[in-house]
UniProtKB/TrEMBL annotation:
Classification via Gene3D superfamilies: translation initiation factor eif-2b, domain 1, Translation initiation factor eif-2b, domain 2
Record-listed substrate binding positions: R49, G50, A51, R90, Q190, N241, K242
Alphabetic keyword roster: Amino-acid biosynthesis, Isomerase, Methionine biosynthesis
Functional note: Catalyzes the interconversion of methylthioribose-1-phosphate (MTR-1-P) into methylthioribulose-1-phosphate (MTRu-1-P).
MF term (GO), any: S-methyl-5-thioribose-1-phosphate isomerase activity
HAMAP family: Salvage_MtnA (MF_01678)
One protein family per Pfam: IF-2B
Protein family membership: Belongs to the EIF-2B alpha/beta/delta subunits family. MtnA subfamily.
Organism field: Thermodesulfobium narugense DSM 14796
GO biological process: L-methionine salvage from methylthioadenosine
Entry protein name: Methylthioribose-1-phosphate isomerase
Annotated positions for site Transition state stabilizer: C151
Catalytic activity: 5-(methylsulfanyl)-alpha-D-ribose 1-phosphate = 5-(methylsulfanyl)-D-ribulose 1-phosphate
Keyword Phosphoprotein applies: no
Lineage of producing organism: Bacteria, Pseudomonadati, Thermodesulfobiota, Thermodesulfobiia, Thermodesulfobiales
Amino acid sequence: MHKHIFEAMKFKKDSLLLLDQTKLPFEEVWLELSNADMIIEAIQNLRVRGAPAIGICGAFALYLSIYNDNKLLVDEISLKREANRIKGSRPTAINLSWGVDKVVDFVGKCINLNEIFDFVYSLYLQEIEINEKIAINGAKVLPEGSILTHCNTGSLAAPGIGTALGVIRKMFQMRKLNLVYVSETRPLLQGARLTVFELERDAIPYKLIVDSASGMLMRNFMVDAVIVGADRIAANGDTANKIGTFMHALAANFYNVPFYVAAPMSTIDFSIATGEEIPIEERDKAEVIRCMSSLTCKDDTSALNYAFDITPAKFIKAIITENGVYSPNEILTLLD
């Protein structure tokens, strides 16, 4: 693992240690979460975020529920009820359900709690390996030059090297990268706070831009490719990602800049045909009318706060996974 890549979560038999991402980059505060309620709160309030990361946290939340109430080992109805409660914490990212369902399926085959703990930790280690493969696959196909990315898709969002930011890291190691343009990612500034935090740790050159500047950069031939992560990918390749992603894809399409998505296979939801079926989370308007803790307008301002948008498959050049690089129209062929 690259020397600057860090762990944003650590596992104990009775708790999850989590780096509170709402405090970054100004403070590095670790939380100790000892039950599912605490992990659900952390997921809902974005103390942890990123589809792969919350998938692992969801799996560990169910483990802790079993740890705190051993009856769930033998009570399938109660186990599934608890699983559904955890899966409901955030509706858009499919990885949350994937992680929880993995534990539900495993419980029926295991003997004791230690086996469940080891299984969840093995999922975490697998994610690290998966993201390394995504990074290698992506670095091979992205063009040399300057790359634009949105939100945060690094070690904070996905165990190990990250997904889209992992590709960028690998390009930097291969000397294929000139500069990273980081869109700030309103309203919670995951690009400005978190991606910049990670790039600085790796000494990767970057420029922070406002979200609406991407079209201007592409017009001026300053961007050679765009790469983003994903929270859910439909069977036709339509992709849900952080709000603002679609805007970058539109600009990239207009200016003939290749637009890539990097995500593990677990982010693909083969049960839905198109992006029209992906549930889009709507969050509290307070996130829009404030910048961090400061009001940017009157507190009674009416606001709308969609957390994600859908980028149609036709705007995506390729989807980069651990298994390979695919055009959106190849996604359905990957169904086992």
